[in-house]
């Protein structure tokens, strides 16, 4: 949950959807593990902590719950120092923590215990990605007479089905999950339990973060082995486009930019570009097209395609900046290019929110050639800053970027079909061609992009509608069972 703990886009969504729901008049609670860095930021009084527990290996494993408020949302910090008093969230430089299954399984159980003590009972719980995947399971498998959460519905929210939380099968027994629960075998054939699969199988409904991704994950490859189960869930699977926190992503008020700008007055954007060129050691020349990329360095993101297309960009006098951290084998070739062409290629290997904002603000084009992209927030931020995205037609990218050559009147970027260097090069060539037409042609397109509404307003309404129906379904079920 941004700004407290963030690894990727999920943190942004959990940081901005709940406050939007609270603004709409809902009572919203967010439960998150009491990570070391979260506690350090909040500085809560530990004496106010209440005990909370859940059964692991047949005995009650105890922790604490601490409560505070943030933007109209109740925060529950579910703590157990043995699990969460560590520098990382999912792991550290050495890889994932070895006990993630136990850590997050316990978190799911302890969260339900904490919620049982807070009236009124929740109508619906959203479980975000595999760390929360056992919530829908425990909610049903571990119910008891007069359970306050008996009628509570659950929504498994899929931000990325490529990350499933696969753990040794004995975890199912350690958490007392009955074999073949709910008619589903939650164990994989290899004997592992998939937290995500379990959540998808047993949640009242399943939500994913864009309409196109909701269709894609029904296909082998995109579905990562969950496609049959997802297909079987039929109309219970909903694709709802993420919103953007338009308060913090606003070029008119962004303090990370050397100069603010608006759609009505783009002169500030030119100044931001010049400053960014200077900051990167490039020639500060408005006539040179600047391509930006801000990304996790991961095969998903098509970083290797950017590396293959970089020589073409350099040959065409373009400049390229890549900001991000991640896999060494992907970042090293890029660093090589930057060393060779330091006046036109920059690779900044760190997590730098402020520089990210300047790249969104100062670039002409934003590269996002993802192989798959459940939603993607970068392209929305880029559009809001008048930086035209170059994206592959997949997931949320397909739902948010309109190709300029296909739709000259409404287009906002450049879209290509195939995840290969030729596809990306083709899209970049088209962008370069537009660039040569100058501000007279480009500025109206930038304005059009900046005026799109990516706030949560619209999507939060759809969440309302979908969640209300899920809640009704569980209430009816309980009624009909008696
Ligand atoms: C994951 C996905 C990304 C999505 C984000 C928030 O990081 O990879 O596409 O935007 O979650 O839902």
Describe the protein in words.
The protein has 482 residues and is α/β, with parallel strands linked by helices. Strand 14 (319-323), helix 12 and strand 15 (345-348) form a beta-alpha-beta unit. It folds into 2 domains: 9-243 and 458-481, Rossmann fold (3-Layer(aba) Sandwich), CATH 3.40.50.2000; 267-454, Glycogen Phosphorylase B (Rossmann fold). The chain contains 18 helices and 18 strands. It has helices at 9-23, 36-42, 81-84, 100-116, 135-141, 170-174, 195-202, 211-216, 227-232, 267-280, 303-315, 328-340, 353-362, 378-384, 395-400, 421-436, 439-450, 456-481, and strands spanning 29-33, 50-56, 59-70, 73-79, 91-92, 95-96, 124-128, 153-158, 166-168, 192-194, 205-208, 237-239, 290-294, 319-323, 345-348, 365-368, 388-392, 414-416. The protein has a 6-stranded parallel sheet, with helices on both faces. A 4-stranded mixed sheet has the order 1-4-3-2. It has a 4-stranded parallel sheet with strand order 7-8-11-12. Helix 11 runs parallel beside helix 12 (328-340). Residues 8-10, 13, 159-160, 209, 242, 373-377, 396 line the site of alpha-D-glucopyranose.
């Amino acid at each position: 949950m941004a700004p407290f703990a963030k690894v990727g886009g999920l943190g942004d969504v959990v940081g901005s959807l709940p406050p939007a729901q609270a603004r709409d008049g809902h009572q919203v609670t967010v439960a998150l593990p009491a990570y070391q860095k979260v506690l350090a930021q909040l500085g809560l009084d530990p004496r106010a902590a209440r005990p909370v527990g859940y059964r692991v290996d047949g005995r009650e494993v105890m922790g604490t719950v601490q409560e505070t408020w943030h933007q109209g949302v109740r925060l529950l910090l579910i703590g157990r120092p043995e699990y969460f008093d560590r520098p990382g969230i999912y792991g550290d430089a050495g890889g994932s923590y070895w006990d993630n299954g136990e850590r997050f399984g316990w978190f799911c159980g302890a969260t339900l215990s904490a919620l049982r003590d807070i009236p009124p009972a929740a109508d619906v719980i959203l479980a975000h990605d595999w760390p929360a995947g056992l919530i829908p399971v425990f909610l049903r498998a571990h119910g008891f007479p007069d359970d306050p959460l008996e009628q509570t519905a659950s929504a498994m929210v899929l931000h990325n089905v490529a990350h499933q939380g696969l753990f040794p099968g004995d975890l199912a027994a350690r958490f007392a999950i009955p074999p073949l629960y709910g008619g589903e075998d939650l164990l994989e054939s290899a004997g592992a339990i998939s937290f995500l699969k379990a959540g998808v199988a047993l949640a009242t409904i399943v939500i994913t973060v864009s309409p196109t991704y909701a269709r894609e994950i029904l296909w082998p490859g995109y579905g990562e082995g969950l496609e049959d189960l997802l297909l079987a869930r039929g109309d219970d699977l909903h694709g709802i486009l993420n919103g953007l926190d338009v308060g913090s992503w606003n070029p008119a008020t962004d303090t990370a930019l050397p100069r603010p700008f608006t759609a009505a007055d783009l002169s500030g954007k030119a100044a931001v570009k010049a400053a960014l060129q200077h900051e990167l050691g490039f020639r500060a020349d408005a006539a040179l097209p600047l391509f930006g990329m801000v990304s996790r360095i991961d095969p998903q993101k098509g970083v290797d395609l950017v590396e293959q297309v970089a020589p073409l960009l350099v040959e065409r006098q373009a400049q390229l900046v890549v900001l991000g951290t991640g896999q060494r084998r992907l970042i090293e070739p890029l660093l090589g290019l930057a060393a060779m062409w330091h006046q036109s290629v920059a690779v900044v290997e760190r997590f730098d929110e402020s520089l990210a904002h300047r790249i969104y603000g100062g670039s002409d084009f934003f590269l996002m050639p993802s192989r798959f992209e459940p939603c993607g927030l970068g392209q929305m931020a880029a559009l809001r800053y008048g930086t035209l995205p170059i994206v592959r037609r997949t997931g949320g990218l397909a739902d948010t970027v309109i190709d300029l050559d296909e739709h000259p009147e409404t287009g906002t970027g450049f879209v290509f079909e195939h995840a290969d260097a030729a596809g990306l090069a083709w899209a970049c060539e088209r962008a370069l061609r537009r660039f040569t037409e100058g501000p007279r042609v480009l500025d109206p397109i930038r304005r059009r992009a900046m005026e799109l509404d990516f706030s949560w307003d619209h999507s939060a309404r759809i969440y309302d509608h979908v969640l209300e129906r899920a809640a009704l379904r569980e209430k009816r079920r309980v009624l009909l069972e008696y």
